[in-house]
Design brief:
It is a single chain. By secondary structure, the chain is mainly α. It folds into 2 domains: 2-74, no CATH class; 90-353, Receptor-associated Protein. Helices cover 82% and strands 0% of the residues. The protein has 14 helices and no strands. The chain is elongated and about 90 Å long.
């Protein structure tokens, strides 16, 4: 079923959880619910996925296991919470929680895209304008500049060298960049060692690291609230969290925290050993939750606080990036324009003498 790997978008998975929750709540069996959903779907690829899930469930395999075995790229949170619902007998409630969480994630994704559209347009426009000036306008005055016995400004010499280098080695440079990009992608995809150091670097990049931590920890707190509220232990919460996380740094830390929880060390004390990746507010709120016996409630509150911080971060980033990009555009395009205008001015002065 590899050809259907990307057939379920986040929106499709939200609909999947919504419809399944409603059908199961109507006392329709799981396989019958999946059959109804298959008949409602117009996509042939998704129908094949439903057929596989139905056959697998009819053989007694759980829905979460069937989804994993299908090799379809379902969201890990979807699988994790369905698995929890199957184990705790609260699949309908878990599906409702899944819808809420996936909708939040989808909304966040839309906000990020909206925030990045304008900066991406400015950056793309700057590159296109620069290439137009360097590769089309500049060559037209280059023969005249070479024929005149004048000292060219530094900016003009710089653009001239860039143009000549692009003509001689442009294709080689593009080919090298493509080769390096493909090699990097393969190494990251296949080797955990490279992925570990990439994730470590990402957690140190200003602004982006804050976004990454807020995104991971808000999701972690939300999962914790759902699992603990459904009767799961803290140790089981750690196990489910490891399955749902993608960042290796966080996976390794949760594994160590899980080992310590088995030895009787509290969740908050274990987290305090990793101040670089766990916010102090999360550690403090978990400590209060453990002392009062309301850890699930405190994780829920913490999730809301982190989500609000994430929303504020995106707003600040949007307000900050726009003037920076405008300055960048002005410097790049202005410098290239000056490299063309200054020698023309020098030629004019030379001719009037």
């Amino acid at each position: 079923m590899n050809n259907t790997k990307n057939s379920f978008s986040i929106t499709d998975q939200i609909f999947f959880a919504q419809r399944l929750s409603l059908l199961l709540a109507s006392d329709i069996s799981l396989t019958q619910s999946l059959s109804v959903m298959m008949s409602m779907d117009n996509s042939l690829k998704r129908k094949k996925i439903y057929e596989y899930l139905i056959r697998s469930c009819e053989r007694g395999i759980s829905l979460s296991k069937s989804m994993i075995d299908s090799k379809v790229k379902f969201d890990q949170l979807l699988i994790t919470l369905i698995k929890n619902g199957e184990h705790s007998g609260t699949l309908i409630e878990s599906l409702s929680e899944i819808v809420s969480n996936l909708e939040k994630r989808n909304e966040l994704k839309k906000k990020i895209i909206t925030t990045l559209i304008y900066p991406a347009f400015i950056f793309f426009a700057t590159i296109c304008m620069s290439l137009f000036l360097v590769m089309y306008i500049f060559p037209k005055i280059l023969p005249m500049l070479n024929s005149m016995n004048i000292d060219l400004p530094f900016l003009t010499l710089l653009i001239k060298a860039l143009y000549e280098y692009s003509i001689l080695y442009g294709l080689q440079v593009i080919g090298f960049i493509v080769f390096i990009s493909i090699t990097f992608f393969i190494l990251i995809k296949r080797y955990t060692y490279f992925r570990y150091y990439l994730h470590k670097i990402l957690l140190k990049i200003p602004i982006y690291s804050t976004y990454l931590k807020l995104s991971i920890l808000s999701s972690l707190c939300s999962i914790g609230e759902i699992l603990l509220s459904s009767g799961r232990s803290v140790s089981e919460f750690h196990t489910f969290s490891i399955d749902s996380l993608k960042n290796i740094i966080y996976i390794n830390s949760i594994k160590e925290i899980h080992k310590e929880s088995v030895q009787g060390i509290s969740f908050s004390n274990s987290m305090s050993k990793y101040p670089d990746i766990f916010f102090q507010i999360m550690i403090d709120m978990c400590s209060i939750g453990e002392k009062t016996g309301n850890l699930a409630l405190m994780l829920g509150h913490c999730s809301k606080i982190l989500e609000q911080d994430l929303d504020n971060l995106l707003k600040r980033f949007s307000a900050l990036i726009e003037p920076i990009l405008m300055i960048f555009m002005g410097i790049v395009v202005g410098s290239i324009a000056l490299s063309i205008i200054l020698p023309v001015y020098e030629i004019t002065n030379h001719l009037t003498k």
